[in-house]
Fold this sequence. Notes:
By secondary structure, chain A is of the alpha/beta class. Chain A contains 15 helices and 13 strands. The longest helix of chain A is centred in the N-terminal third of the chain and has 23 residues, at 2-24. In chain B, a hairpin with a 6-residue loop joins strand 1 (61-62) and strand 2 (69-70). By secondary structure, chain B is mainly alpha-helical. Helices cover 73% and strands 1% of the residues of chain B.
Amino acid sequence: xxxxxxxxxxxxxxxxxxxxxxxxxxxxxxxxxxxxxxxxxxxxxxxxxxxxxxxxxxxxxxxxxxxxxxxxxxxxxxxxxxxxxxxxxxxxxxxxxxxxxxxxxxxxxxxxxxxxxxxxxxxxxxxxxxxxxxxxxxxxxxxxxxxxxxxxxxxxxxxxxxxxxxxxxxxxxxxxxxxxxxxxxxxxxxxxxxxxxxxxxxxxxxxxxxxxxxxxxxxxxxxxxxxxxxxxxxxxxxxxxxxxxxxxxxxxxxxxxxxxxxxxxxxxxxxxxxxxxxxxxxxxxxxxxxxxxxxxxxxxxxxxxxxxxxxxxxxxxxxxxxxxxxxxxxxxxxxxxxxxxxxxxxxxxxxxxxxxxxxxxxxxxxxxxxxxxxxxxxxxxxxxxxxxxxxxxxx
Amino acid sequence: xxxxxxxxxxxxxxxxxxxxxxxxxxxxxxxxxxxxxxxxxxxxxxxxxxxxxxxxxxxxxxxxxxxxxxxxxxxxxxxxxxxxxxxxxxxxxxxxxxxxxxxxxxxxxxxxxxxxxxxxxxxxxxxxxxxxxxxxxxxxxxxxxxxxxxxxxxxxxxxxxxxxxxxxxxxxxxxxxxxxxxxxxxxxxxxxxxxxxxxxxxxxxxxxxxxxxxxxxxxxxxxxxxxxxxxxxxxxxxxxxxxxxxxxxxxxxxxxxxxxxxxxxxxxxxxxxxxxxxxxxxxxxxxxxxxxxxxxxxxxxxxx
Lengths: 395, 304
């Protein structure tokens, strides 16, 4: 008897608790529609709050340029590294969005943050160097919605094909070495471990199966997505290991377990530094890539410091420094002259600094949405992409 | 109890302390309630509360555009998880690995535990006990990473496989084999300890009696030692089994396929799809519940 009473008591307590937390928490039932309704834009940058809390890609906030900023602005910078776009989106939403002031978001994260109202509109007039940004990055769809700016461009770069040049000969010119079943490098291929990598498969299909009618690798119909996923299922048999954190790929190439696969420019540089012979190319099918923006949380506790940071990181000398460390390309065209002093010809041949044409050929990461961009809404959204990616990785 | 000399206000015969103490003396239930309330409250609020919240979440859904959780009730997540082929594949992979790891660990732990409990000298036993527990002093992550290095290209595992088995370029650094080996290593101490404890409790007199009655070593083992130690073996297997079932770090480091934990991590970390993750999390709960009910029937809980 008494045991049942005790059990009933438990259940009542648990249910009450669930009811309490269920009603209040969970991120709120009604998300604000599209943002942009967070009041008027600031017209000047006020005094700094003395602190700044950022989410950044590893390598984006090194001492070399953060310390001078701290001295100049009086804002002490705290950084939480995010290893993937998805992690960054989650981090930005923690603590009701007030835990972090800003994020270096890639294009596959930005629209999610904007749509959920997580990030604040930016008054770009407060950032003098904004006008020096490459024209196509001044109001790109990944951070500007309905003419409202939500981000300040930072660095960009391609996802290139990298191979171990001591093993792979002749040099590949197509992504077929990582996708086709008859690849010579079965078992030693690597691929990027994120749903957004589906776009790489779609880009390959765009060139090799024109009858699928793929225009934009991020705007895929159900049929197109299935074709891309089928290609990835085929690729899986070739893959030694997927890399999510760039050190995974560096370790794999160093050990000789990986011979060919998609890479960021910084991965190649770090491998070269370790004495591993690797070479890269932009294959004939083209490449996907990323353009990152600094975005400010809609509930930032230190908005002035964040504005100062966005202003600072837009400067040509700062971006040139980041480029030298991270091997990404600055969005500020004035950085190119500074880089030429260090890198000479590589500024153009490797970094494609200020190269609008090269940038326009990259299929930049963006969040897949149901809206296909041409009026129809039967494209597959990111949630579906995630489920499909689980299928690739799970079966 | 000598309570007569107590004086002073709070301890006065009708003071609150005295009354409380009298109440507690009289009421068994009150005493019990006070003693277990704090840990029980913790258990209910933090432990069961979180679990309940997770189960509640599994009925919600995700807003496709903002990928925020909408508190609309529905069974769609369970439908996805329990009918999707991929989730079945992931579950089977995880389950098979968990069973393989459990069998391996028991096979390794039994002889070690037997030697420690019945054959080793006191000194040797202590040395072995320390050796078994020692790895637990270092971080799990460090041990898993160590196996990544051992199994990686050009590592010791490659050398062994090439030299002794003649396998060229084995490349097992990211494979099911690597996951199985690493798990077996990681959970071994958790299996050895309960097996050792169970074997130590088998009275020597029973073994002697068995011998006196004419049983050979193998018969004694089969009919005396094994049945008595069996609950300990099952207890140890619970650890190896359930730890494998819930782990996602080892498959990330040395595997190349998703386990249940990876899929859940992917839903939460990448898709921000907490409801689907919560629904999938019920799968290992169900599996472990079945396992535990079998283990209970086999008497494992008496050996813990």
